[in-house]
Structure formats: C-alpha cells, structure tokens
Amino acid sequence: MMVIRMTKEQILNLQDDSIFGKNLYSYYEFISWARWYPDLFIQLFEPKTGRLNLHIDQRIFLRSDIRFMSMYGVFSRGYGKTFDEVLAMVIVSLLFPDITLALTAQTKENAAELLKDKISEILKYYPLLENELLEKPKFSKGDAEIKWTSGSTIDVLANAQSSKGQRRKRIKIEESALLDDVTFQDALKPIVEVPRYTIGKLAIPDPQELNQQIHFFTTSGFRGSTEYQRSVDMYNNMIQLKGDIVLGSNWMLPCWFSRGSNKSQILEKKRTMSPISFAQNYEQEWVGSSDGALVDINALLRCRTLEKAELQITNDNSEYYIGVDVARSQNSSNNQSSAVVARVDRDVKTNRIKHIDVPYLINIPNVMSFKNQAIEIKRLKKRFNAKMVIVDGNGLGSGLIDELLKPSYDPITNDNLGCWDTVNTDNEPEEYRAEKCVYDLKAQGINGKVITDFMDYVNSGVLRLLKKKEDSFYLSERANPQSDILPFVQTDLLVEEISNLKIKHLANGNFTVERLVKKTDKDRYSALAYVLFYIHEYQSKLRIISSDYSAPLFQFRKPNIRKR
User: Fold this and answer.
1) pLDDT (tens digit, 9 = 90+) per residue, 427-438?
2) Could you give all domains of the chain from N- to C-terminal order, each with its CATH number?
3) Contact 97, 134 (CB under 8 A)
4) In this model, does residue 482 exceed pLDDT 90?
5) How far is CA 119 from the centre of its chain?
6) How far apart are CA 265 and CA 261, in angstroms?
7) Which of 107, 289, 374, 491 lies at a CB distance of 3.0 to 4.6 Å from 466, suitable for a disulfide?
8) Above 50 in pLDDT, residue 2?
9) CA–CA separation, 210 and 71 (whole Å)
10) Element (H, E) at 418
11) String of DSSP letters for 91-136
12) Which residues of 397-419 are buried (b: 16+ CB within 10 A; e: fewer)?
C-alpha cells in the first residue's frame, strides 16, 4: 500500500468556514502532539489541587507504551506498572476513535479486579476524564467494560484458551511470566489480527498506526521459560531498532520515588521471604538454571492445572499416598520437614496411571520433637486414608521412623492414631499386628532412579500441581486460608525449589541434584520425588485384560469358485 502523507498546505486546503474546519490544522497538530507526549496530554485532565505528579520513570513508561509496537516490562512489586498500563489504555482510548483494547491476566476475574481498581484510582486523580465516559463503567466478578465517547472500549480477557476467537485492536498481557507460549500463539496472538479502521469516508487502516500491538508486563519468572526467552529476543530486537523496547526496574527505583514499601519494609521482606521469591518479586532477577536444569521449567509450569486444594479425602474410592522428607537444613529459619499428599487417578480397565495429583502439601517445623512430628503425619494419613506413607529414613529420618512405629494419641481429641509398621525393613513396632503402611526409603542407592522417575512424570504431564494464583486473593478465599491460600503458597514454594535444582554428574557415572542458591532448601521437592518413586516402582503395574482364547483366531467365508 502506498502511504499518502499530507502536507500542511494540503490540510489547509481541506478547511472550510465551520468552526471545526477553520481549526482543522490545529486539531491535526494537537492530536500528533498528544500521541507523541501522552504524559503531557493526560496532565490536561488534572485538577488545580490534588494533582498526581508523574515521576520521570512513569513518563518514560507512558511514552514507550504508546510509541513502540511491542514492549516488555519487568517491574518489581509496588512499582505501579498496572496503574501505568491502564493509564496508557485510557489515553489511547481518547486519541484513537473506535479502538478496542483489552487487559489480560491469568483469569478474567483477576483482570476485572485489576481494571476496576486502577480505573477508580485514575478517575480520582483525573476527575475530568469522567466527562469522556459514555456511561458508567460496568464491573462484575468475571467481566469489565469501559465505554468512552470516542467510541472506544476497554475490557478484559484471560490468558487462556477461553479467549480464542476474540478480536481486539491492542492488548496488554499482565503477569506474562505465567503464560506458556502455546497458549499465546494459539489463543492470544490472533486476538489483534484485525486492525483499527479510520473514521470517515476512506475508512482504511492507518499505515502509521501501531496496529496489532501486544505489550507484556510482569515480575520476573524462571530462566529457561518461553517468557524469559521472549524478553531476551525483544531486548536484541531493541538493540537492532526493530520496533521493540524492554524496560525494567527492581525495588530501588519506586522506593526512591516513595512508591510502594519503604526501604526498611522491603529489607524486612528480604529477611523473611525465600531468596528465590524475593529475587523474582523485588530484585527482578530471572531465577533458576537455563543449562542443566532438573526439568524443563515450561513443562513444570504446564503441570499447574489443579483448581482446588483438598484438606481430606473427597471420595472413598480415591487412592492417596504421602511422601515425607525430614529436613537437614542449614538455615534455622527454614528448618522444616515436608509432607506431600499425592492422589492417583487410574484407568479403570487397565489400571494405568493417568494422573498423579498433588492437592495438598504442608511443612512441619523441626522445632517439634519427632514424637509430635509423627502425630502430625498420622493425622494427615487419617484425613486422607492414605495407603502408604513414604518416609526418608536416612539420618534424622530414622528418629521419625522410630516414633511412627510407636502407638500415638491425638493430644487434642485423645483419638488413637495407631501404631505403624514398615513394609520393607525388619524394624519391630511396639504393638503386635501394627498397620503396615510405612515405606522406609533409603535414597542413597536409588537416588538416580528417584530423579529420573520425577523427571518422567513432570515431562509427560502425568504430574498435576495446584495452579498459580495472583498475590491478591479474593475476600472469600481469605476467609478460608487453610484450603484456599496456604496450599497454593506451598505449591509456589515447591516450584521455586525445583527451579533451583540442576543435575550434577558424579565421577562414578551416577548423578544427583544440586542447589543453585544454597539458602533455598529442597525438602518439598524431595518429599514429592519420594512419593512419585514409590508409586512408579510399586503401584504402576498394568492389569492384563482377559481374552477368550477358545475362539478361533481367524474366521473365513467359504470361497466362491467361479466356473469356467
């Protein structure tokens, strides 16, 4: 298409005697100025008192957002990136008639909450924008829609297959580090396929407009993920002036401008948070290993599909197992044992394992005695009616094994929790005919097998973990933290532990795992790996489907012999 650019003289020739016609070139210049300097344009809507003074980094953010075809922003918690995103969408809605914009997040519910919160904040700081609203913004739990007098609309979509087939002119992807490339390519990228058409008799796509614009915003994620590679590719495109731009900031920049938490509050979070979590949320470092990682991080993130946690058995026919790792942490603030509950989903006919779900996992502080730890584990088995409890019996684990082989009573309800026995050792329980439900795992000789079984279940997608949730939980979820918050947080920590591990090859030809960040333990990973090993080695036998061999193998029709 040949691009026709009008000169000032050509525009002046289009003027007529109407008020609009007499000022046509002034409008042309104003719109060009506003699109190039969106931060100055939005200042026109500020009141005389109670102004919001945009900081220099926010002005750069807005100009980059509206000037560049593709943008990748990696910012810390408290930076205000979502506020800047939505503010840019508002500016575009005013300056580009009939444009349709969408904010996407992990779910439509989360995207609607984000848009509602930020629009309310923007209208507070820029009250004159209410004059540009066509009607009152509509918000519900799973949807949002803002209509402007320009004919433009802003709404929300999910970073999921449910958005497939939708059409918008531009989209902004929130928390893109949680996005897998398959969903992006199949469901999100085609959303902006149709460009915006200009208003008027000509009604064609403006060749100078940034049609099909997609921007990505997130806190940092894991190295080796598709989003990490996307940020690297866009960084290289930015260097080569291909129309991409990458911006980023850790906690120090917003802290300098007094946005979000102050320095002492953030340093306190660094003391209490896991190193990996703090690096991702505040230091904006992509963590984990890109070379020699234990598992492909994209495969691990695809395993996070479970919607709900379970606190107890949900079906009498369900099949549960529990893996326990007794911690030997050097970090006293994180010195805990871990227990992972695994539910096996089988094919009824063949007994084949279709999925192994992890709907619940907990940490048990090691300040508790082995006796009290044994009580916690027996309570857990009782709640899920687990068939087997796999315990790391090495080192400190032997002390826990000894306590499990003794009778226990719940100190609160006085219920008899039973006395257990092992199925693979000669250890004697204190009670005759104790329940044989403990597998005493000695990992030294089978460590390689434990690792390979874990890798197989992750890469095959048989393992399923609880979904990643945003940091802001709904009020209904906060009312039930034991079921709606804590299991999801524990799963986040499990993923952090796994991403921190890489394969280490030993001189004797075997291999093990080592931690990249030594302060991050691997107790949750170990508990999960142990239970997966037991299920694979002892509970994955296929059922032979019986056949009637008395019937003839082949049957023939009597041939028709043609007579000559």
Assistant:
1) 899 998 899 999
2) 54-272 (3.40.50.300), 297-538 (3.30.420.240)
3) no
4) no
5) 24
6) 6
7) 491
8) no
9) 12
10) strand 416-418
11) HHHHHSTT-EEEEEESSHHHHHHHHHHHHHHHHHH-GGGGGGBSS-
12) bbebbebbbeebeeeeeeeebbb
